[in-house]
Design brief:
Layout (H helix, E strand, L loop, with lengths): L1 H15 L14 H9 L9 H5 L5 H8 L8 E3 L7 H4 L4 H9 L9 E4 L6 H13 L11 E3 L36 H4 L6 E3 L6 H8 L10 E4 L2 E3 L1 E3 L4 E6 L8 H24 L3 E6 L2 H10 L5 E3 L4
Parallel strand pairs: 2-3, 8-9, 9-10
Antiparallel strand pairs: 1-2, 4-5, 5-6, 7-8
Protein name: DUF6310 domain-containing protein
Keywords: Signal
Organism: Archangium lansingense
Length: about 300
């Protein structure tokens, strides 16, 4: 109970912090992205899959739920501030470790990692997807201190997706991680992504959608909220709708008319995606098509699909 109280206190402190970020540490626009960048500085036995799954939660929650997936042979936890000592008194060493790791701000000397950290494949894939969409701000995240491998146990290589993660550590006083909580909208059956066959009649359109980087259901459409979207990047919760019209062959007047006619349907698709907590991207084949849509609605996210 005292350990849970510590996590709750850290969440409260994180939510109530009002100090402005310094120029060298600009704030991330997306807390999920900030969590992933912080998780990228740590060694994981599962390639960072747990961190990606829990990235939408506040950092203290992610730290608690994914602590078991860290490579504990390479990490030392210290409590220079003493704020975790009371909550962890009488608990296993892991209890102290979770409390230290869950702190909203990383204290110097609190987390020490042996050897060089290779970013987990799951975290790297998700960060690459953010970069593809152009949503990655310049964020300076504090990194744990590192020690040469010679001063600690040899650093194991980052496991590949086919390798099995290490068994979950079992401490006598450390409770097993609780199953991830599901938000109310994720419980709605219409918000669960369901792969469905591509609509026939336009093979070039379907091939273009299948080649979207990090498409979680390549070869399929994805039904969400009653709408069959062309693609879903599950790692960044982003639905895509692809427009493969030969926009550039028309006159400027026809282009403006065509974009205006298509706009209501695009806005409806964006609304359906947002209702279920997904981002929405319109994929187009030309910069002229992108510019025409942006003139009509600057709130849309539009990407030129260079692979088409």
């Amino acid at each position: 109970m005292r350990f849970r109280a510590c996590i709750a206190l850290l969440l409260y402190v994180s939510a109530c912090a009002t100090s402005a970020p310094s120029p060298r540490e600009p704030a991330a626009r997306d807390p999920r992205l900030a969590n992933l960048q912080r998780a990228a500085t740590l060694p994981w036995t599962d390639g960072g899959r747990c961190a990606v799954q829990e990235a939408s939660e506040p950092w203290p929650v992610l730290a608690e739920r994914c602590f078991h997936a860290l490579d504990h042979d390479r990490i030392e936890f210290h409590d220079p501030t003493g704020r975790c000592a009371v909550a962890s008194a009488g608990a296993a060493a892991m209890g102290l470790g979770v409390c230290v790791l869950a702190a909203p701000e990383l204290v110097v000397g609190a987390v020490i990692v042996a050897g060089v950290v290779v970013v987990g494949f799951a975290i790297k894939e998700t960060l690459d997807a953010y970069e593809l969409l152009g949503d990655e701000p310049e964020v300076v995240m504090p990194a744990p201190e590192t020690r040469p491998v010679s001063e600690a146990k040899p650093a194991p290589q980052e496991p590949s997706p086919k390798q099995k993660p290490k068994p979950e550590p079992k401490g006598p006083d450390f409770p097993p991680p609780e199953p991830p909580e599901t938000s109310e909208r994720d419980r709605r059956p219409e918000c669960m992504p369901v792969p469905v066959p591509h609509r026939g009649g336009n093979n070039d359109h379907n091939k273009c959608a299948d080649r979207i980087p990090y498409n979680s259901f390549s070869g399929w459409d994805v039904r969400v909220n009653g709408k069959d979207f062309d693609a879903l990047q599950l790692a960044v919760r982003t639905l895509w709708e692809v427009k493969t019209d030969d926009f550039d062959i028309h006159s400027p007047r026809s282009q403006a008319f065509f974009a205006k006619v298509k706009l209501p349907e695009i806005r409806r698709e964006a609304r359906l995606a947002k209702e279920c907590g997904y981002n929405f991207v319109v994929g187009v084949k030309s910069a002229a098509h992108k510019e025409a849509l942006e003139k009509l609605d600057k709130t849309l996210t539009i990407a030129v699909m260079e692979w088409c």
